[in-house]
Amino acid sequence: MQRKIDFPHTMWISQHTIRFAFREEISQENFQAVQQFNRFLKKHLQQNLIESVASYHTVTAYLKQTKDSIDINFLQKQWLIMQVATKDNEVISRKLQIPICYDEEFALDMDRVMNYTGLSFENIKKIHMSKSYSVYLIGFLPGFPYLGDLDKELFVPRLRKPRSSVSASSVGIGGFQTGIYPLDSPGGWNIIGKTPLNLFDVHGKEIFIFSLGDQVQFYEITKQEFYEIKSKGV
Amino acid sequence: MKPLLIVKKQGVYGSLQDQGRYGYREYGIPLSGPMDKVSFQAAHYILNNEKNQTTFEMFIGGFEFEAIDDGIYVLTGAKCRCLLNGVPIEMWKTFHLTKGDVLSIKSVSHGSVVYLTPKGGFQTESILGSSSCFPLVGEAINEGSILYGKNTGTLHYTRGLYAPFRPIFKSDITVRIFKGPHFELFTEESQQQFLQVAFQFSGGNRMGYYLKGSILKLKKMKDIFSEATQFGTIQVPQNGEPIILMADAQTVGGYPIIATIHEEDLHKVAQMRMFNTIKFVLMEEDVCP
């Protein structure tokens, strides 16, 4: 039998915004709870919900109507019923393989990462590609995925002074996370490679590559392959 | 779609805005939309436009336009000197531009954000369901830019708001707030100062307004997990000086959130300018939803 997830702590942020908070920690357990609760809200608030933003331990819901339109007790009961009734507590996630080129042309901070971790270039790549990461959060920039959890061996603090411009599709690491810049933007993560894929295309058929809960794994490509994929404009 | 105006002089910052881009915050796309919703809505009301038409929002004036075609317009928002071929015209009241006319938005005396809206609204490419400028992707409005309008009917009479109904932008404002999720993490002293001190506007843009007045401190240094923010969120970064997130606010933030401003008071905040002050009053618990 699966462990029950308690109903999150509820707080009104403003007239149309309600925040649901789980335990204050970053963990797979919280992540599952947040994803599940986010889907639960979308289903149960339906017409009243404009949109919701899920984060590490919170789900924030933006509503069309105010206070009186929401019956928290009812939601609590529904949540409980669902917990008992459903066995499908696991997040249904897509598995995505993302090509990355670690060539020194793109891996701007590889020296810094090697110095800090004491690892060789080869080992850093190997560890970075060794597991699949959950998309914990999307934000900061349109479509920017916060991917966790990075192997402890690769923990490197962010740059003291952020770069004024990091080019789109650069892959960085910072703290316990790795991420990909969807657009040219300022940024303070340690850049260790680049993907030839476009993460964000407002005119494309699929606007964003990633959704919350996706499982992302990197695989290495050569510089030549990088430019081949790039020229196809994927 | 027809060309209406050409930008002859570029002011501080101007952007096209409709009500905003809803439904994409979970992907990190800011809501955007007008900074001062009241002046935005008034413009459409005066022109008898549909609610979600597009307007041109300007910071602190400085813009000059030349009419490429005839059209009916209204200017709303911050109080400023507006000239039509060198002759002052009244805000909050419709006026007509004929091909070749020059419209100048001069110095602003009260408030900071001005809206120029044509009958029918401006026409621009809709990205993800909204015409609001998308600062990271869309095109900026510069000198030489052309603003397009729709082929809409005309108004056969002058419409406007009587003076008593027009908002007044004061140099010291008080706004209602809700306690933020991290309010209790601040020292008792900082909590009190936050609710007593008149903070001063020290600059900002469509993403955020910076305040000075008191240094707000946490009881103990603590890492905050990033979570959703919105227009009106008051964050406190390490330097202790609050930032109010505005219409182009990023969707999530990692600084402690001390409070959120009541949505109905946001237009007052939007119109703040240098040296204006702002005070925060906590909503009574029973009024609080």
Notes on the protein architecture:
Chain B: InterPro entries: CT_A_B, Cyclophilin-like_dom_sf, PxpC. Chain B: GO terms for molecular function: ATP binding; hydrolase activity. Chain B: Residues 26-288 form the Carboxyltransferase domain. The complex is a heterodimer of chains A (234) and B (289). Chain A is an alpha+beta fold and 234 residues long. In chain A, 25% of the residues lie in helices and 28% in strands. Chain A has five helices and 13 strands. In chain A, the strands form three sheets. In chain A, strands 5-13-6-7-10-9-12 form a seven-stranded mixed beta sheet. Chain A has a four-stranded antiparallel beta sheet with strand order 1-2-4-3, covered by helices on one side. The termini of chain A are far apart. Chain B has 289 residues and is mainly β. Chain B contains three helices and 19 strands. Chain B has helices spanning 37-47, 188-196, 266-270, and strands at 2-9, 13-17, 55-59, 64-67, 71-84, 87-88, 95-97, 102-118, 122-123, 146-149, 172-179, 199-204, 208-212, 227-228, 233-235, 243-245, 252-253, 257-261, 277-282. In chain B, strands 1, 2, 3, 4, 5, 6, 7, 8, 9 and 10 form a ten-stranded antiparallel beta sheet that branches. In chain B, strands 11-18-15-16-13-12-19 form a seven-stranded mixed β-barrel. In chain B, a hairpin with a 3-residue loop joins strand 12 and strand 13. The longest helix of chain B has 11 residues, at 37-47. The radius of gyration of chain B is 20 Å and the shape is elongated. The model of chain B has no long low-confidence stretch (mean pLDDT 93). Classes of the chains: A alpha+beta (234), B mainly beta (289). Chain A binds chain B through residues 11-17, 19, 21, 24, 26, 50-58, 60, 62, 66-68, 137-144, 146, 183, 185, 202, 207-208, 212, and chain B through 22-29, 127-128, 134, 136-137, 178, 180-181, 225-228, 230, 232, 250-252, 260-263, 288-289.
Brief account:
Chain B: GO terms for molecular function: ATP binding; hydrolase activity. Chain A is α+β, with helices and mostly antiparallel strands and 234 residues long.
